[in-house]
Amino acid sequence: VAILLWLWVGGVHTEDAKTGLYTKAPSPLDTGETYDAPLPFRYKEEPKGTLFQGGFQNGIPVFGKLYSFLRGEDIRTPENSVPAANVKFGSRSTGGTSAENEFVTIELSPRAESPLRLTGWKLKSAVTGQEATIGKAVYLPFSNDVNAGQDLDLQPGEKAIVVTGRSPVGYSFRLNQCTGYFEQFQDFSPSLPRECPAVSEEPQPAAPNRLNDQCLDYLQTVPRCSAHLQSFPIGTSGECANFIAEKASYSYCTKTHKNEAGFYKPEWRVFLGRSEVLWKARREVIELIDPAGVIRDSISY
Q1: Phi first, then psi: what are they for 127, rounded to 5°?
Q2: CA dist 168 to 31, 87, 186, 187, 271, Å?
Q3: Which pLDDT value is given to residue 35?
Q4: For residues 139 and 213, what is the distance between their CA atoms, to the nearest angstrom?
Q5: Checking CA distances to 56, which of 80, 198, 239, 300 falls within 20 to 30 Å?
Q6: What are the two backbone dihedrals, phi and then psi, of residue 56, each rounded to the nearest 5 degrees?
Q7: What pLDDT, on the 0 to 100 scale, is given for residue 71?
Q8: CA–CA distance, 179 with 173 (Å, rounded to integer)
Q9: For residue range 223-259, what is the model confidence (pLDDT) as tens digits?
Q10: DSSP per residue over 259-273, as a string?
Q11: Positive or negative, the Cα torsion across 64, 66, 69, 74?
């Protein structure tokens, strides 16, 4: 125990050990070196980064990891430290003929204590050897703008639907209250939920420019998550038409509601960008592999 404590605080690298038992006079009178110190206590310069050269500070992380290892804890890097039971495959649609309709679902348990960085994980066929790596995704897409991806951090309780094909909008993204507008002009598989705030629930102009009864009745018929493209009924006022044209859009929806509680959904749509299917129709084994090469889950069918 005494030896371990001595090593912990620096061992032969402490200032006391450097001085030895006798010290010659400093320059210019002499060399200033130590002499006649017992061999085990003589200071020797070693490469930087050795275990005890920094004394206590360098010893803490090393012995800390050793202590965690002896307790059976996971000492890998944070992005790979999610226990195997907390990340798994969910539903799937595989073995078809269209890459856009082929997908698997990856879920992170609500009991997980930390997010999971899914970027860099792989999906691989244990039968054919085909594989694909999960890339980056857009946290909040903006219309008519360049949407740069970032590392996809799956939060506890969230899932990612990983589609083999290309993204209809050109990128992977997280679902929110407004992404149902994407479904109006694009074809997603599975379909995006159309749960946007209703246009009839948006703030209306104050009096005296308040919308008339005919407009208010018509607002009840405007579908959610749909830009208004059809003609308006005869007699519709200009104020009513302008109100609908402004409010029924993805850009207005995100600008108005992005800071509200519940705006973001616990689901990501991830696209691997392939033109052909990856998985066999039968006798297939799909493996979910983390960046360290560890198989976290598999599907057999």
Answers
A1: -95, -50
A2: 76, 27, 6, 7, 9
A3: 52
A4: 39
A5: 80
A6: -60, -40
A7: 57
A8: 9
A9: 999 999 999 999 999 999 999 999 999 999 999 999 9
A10: TSTT-EEEEEEEE--
A11: positive
Show the tokens assigned to 77. 């890097």
Whether the full predicted model's pTM is greater than 0.85, yes or no, is: no
Q: Which residue carries 């198989």 as its tokens?
A: 295
Q: Which residue has the higher pLDDT, 150 or 24?
A: 150
Supply the pLDDT for residue 110: 96
DSSP bridge partners of 299: 286
Lookup: tokens for 126: 């244990």
Predicted confidence band at 143 (pLDDT cuts at 50, 70, 90)?
Answer: confident
Residue 219 has pLDDT above 90, yes or no: yes
Instruction: State how far the Cα of 218 lies from the Cα of 236, in Å rounded to an integer.
Output: 9
Instruction: State the DSSP string of the chain.
Output: -HHHHHHHTTGGGSHHHHH-SEEPPPTTTS---EES--GGG------TT-TTTTTHHHHHHHHHHHHHHHTT---S-GGG-S-GGGEEEEEEE-SSS-GGG-EEEEEE-TT-SS-EE-TT-EEEETTT--EEE---BBSS--TTS----B--EEPTT-EEEEESS--TTSS-EEEETTGGGHHHHS--SSPPP--PPPGGGSPPPPTTSPPPHHHHHHHTTSPTT----SPPPTT--HHHHHHHHHHSSHHHHHHHHTTSTT-EEEEEEEE---SS--S-SSS-EEEEE-TTS-EEEEEE-
Average pLDDT, the chain: 84
Residues contacting 276, CB < 8 A, separation 6+: 99
For residue 189, pLDDT beyond 70: yes
**pLDDT, mean of residues 132-138:** 98
pLDDT tens per residue, range 163-174: 999 999 999 999
